């Protein structure tokens, strides 16, 4: 959606499909109502949208479908508060507000020709998915694509129905859960430990990570130990947001507004900003 | 004053922090000081400009050894906080200062509107105040400048203190009665009172200074005025929301408010919000013969239950 | 100064009445001891002797405003299905803000780069800005809390104003600052005022001189950045702060806002309202994490924004007009001048 004359006015969309990823996370597949809006909708992987349930409010979510697959816009929502609870109450066919695309995007152009390592935890896989699928849909432009994806338990993994597709399109997928579970015969271990075991080489590689703050902290540490340069590490941040357009003064880290200068940041950029995550 | 400073210098090393008053941004204003070092004690002042109730910082400093200077009214806040177990007695060292009244800066501003902001020198005498500004010199009677709480002060001497500095003072018994300031409103009909409050609250900016300055509003970070789940108040700027907040605030303080007057003093828009609390306190005095912040062991009447209330005739006989 | 017109004191009300015919005029009036901007009408007495308690911020940035209306409608054939309708609300009507001081008008020059010149434009602010003129009163004597000269302003700063009024013998000397302002001076009540030029200049000069020398704040943005990790410094600076919103809401340059939905059944409003970064709730995330959990963190952000982040993004301009309201209206007299100077000196010492 191009910059509307009124950036606060959402477009109206319809919920086409809802997938219960985990007990607390639902994925919504949404189309914009206005004729021609979906065809005209342009965005880049990493950009976000503000979803409105009027009466409750708006909240920010990454558009986790890629621009190469525009039958719908996909958003994954974890239920934590007022707006997310209202979103979880929606049914297929319900109307909602969409203000998108907002924010910056992953530097997918600069990442061409490199090997990519995705490191995700829980719902952190959502922003990674948009870039992952974009890259898999443009497979020749990128080198090896590996994914380390972990969650607390097998029930907390999202997009389980897609893992085969990711593998078949040319990604190496390593899944892990925090502890042993009866029906799980895959990897066991926290994501940072699995990262250390897999020990990807930093040579011509970019690491993209997203997950709970504590996971990000240890993953960053782990990547530095593996000798990744600051510029080779990309992450996407979350903050409480309201306007989403850099005005209301809430989501800033020093001079940078996460809604406009982010949410995608390289570790190098983060190092130059005050430590206020 | 010297005795006070000497005592403070001796006590400071035993404390994590000592709260007192120091000179503020101009000769008319005092400001809270947070002293960690005996050397800083020389900045302490004690005079009728020391209006802030330092007890308001105590709940936030629970767990630390703190010293606090209190006037009579402030000491009642300390007792109330102890009563509600929001602070620990063994962590707080109370320096009590008997007080014969502070200055109401808003009353002063009304008497010198042109140059209130340009004060160069203040000479505080026994009964008079001589103020020199960039434009002229004024002399005022101290009595004219006392706030309502001082004109009706029942507790000029601290009700709790580890050390006391200064002569004992006598309570004030205004001829018109302790709650004389409420008469003007009480005489008006309900619609007239509503008109009055609509006019006063219209300029409220919802800064919540009244709430945050109150020593007893410890739930300020989770206040119903701003919560969304559930949403009690709208964020729209209407008298309806603002009056609702004042009602809820007064009700939450009923039986707890010690009339330190900070809520009204801090209001940047000069809205007489203390009136609500004083009215409720008047009712509490009549109904339950109870005053907050005087007896640490007392149970507030609204936190207990009597099958037969002495002053409430429920059954019509 | 360009052309000077003169308005005699006894014609002031008449002039305001004349201006009120075509648009709303905001003017400072006294309510108890507070001076606030209200819509002018002849029954109200103007209060011009002191800086108004509240700045004229509401004229362009109301305390709350409805941005849009929404309505869900259930399909009578199929109640499980609903449609959604949105309607924008736009501000209307021309306005004149009369009687603000230069600091109050200057405040909006801080809003402009953010609300009008960034990647996204705020239409609500923009419409009001276009439709509003500022007829500003210059100051004759500074108050103890005034420090406009610290931040590049002055008691007669024309920035943000359309007309400047300087008090002179018998009335006011008026000068147009902008084209919009020149049009406002087209009235029979105003006479030629060249004779008042020297006096007006002297008043302005006197006011500036009374302020004295300003310290050099050009190194402050850097100093504040260096002090970011020094939480002990910020704890000391914020010890007496009670985390209310008085400083923020009365500040002519503070523009943080909240957006909330206020429902009434199936319909309702999306409202923009003032918010303040001194509140705990401001940055509280749904997960429970709060990047600014204590008042030390929040004061660091407020002072940092005004004297470090904003200047870095906007050619060194401080997001502060030096009006001193934050100092005067603070319940405990937190003095931002003290904090800025402490930052300067602290860094020098280390």
Give a written overview of the molecule.
The complex is a heterotrimer of chains A (277), B (317) and C (350). By secondary structure, chain A is of the alpha/beta class. Helices cover 21% and strands 31% of the residues of chain A. In chain A, the strands form 3 sheets. In chain A, strands 10-9-8-7-11-12-15 form a 7-stranded mixed sheet, sandwiched between helices. A 6-stranded antiparallel sheet of chain A has the order 4-3-6-1-2-5. A two-stranded antiparallel sheet of chain A has the order 13-14. In chain A, helix 5 packs parallel to helix 6. The longest helix of chain A has 13 residues. The radius of gyration of chain A is 18 Å and the shape is globular. The model of chain A has no long low-confidence stretch (mean pLDDT 94). With 317 residues, chain B is of the alpha/beta class. Chain B folds into 2 domains: 261 residues, no CATH class; 41 residues, Nuclear Transport Factor 2, Chain: A (Roll). In chain B, strands 2-1-3-4-8 form a 5-stranded mixed sheet. Chain B has a 3-stranded antiparallel sheet with strand order 5-6-7, with no helix packed on it. Chain B is globular. Chain C starts with a strand and ends with a helix. Chain C has one domain. Chain C is 31% helix and 24% strand. The longest helix of chain C has 19 residues. Chain C is an alpha+beta fold and 350 residues long. Chains in contact: A-C, B-C.
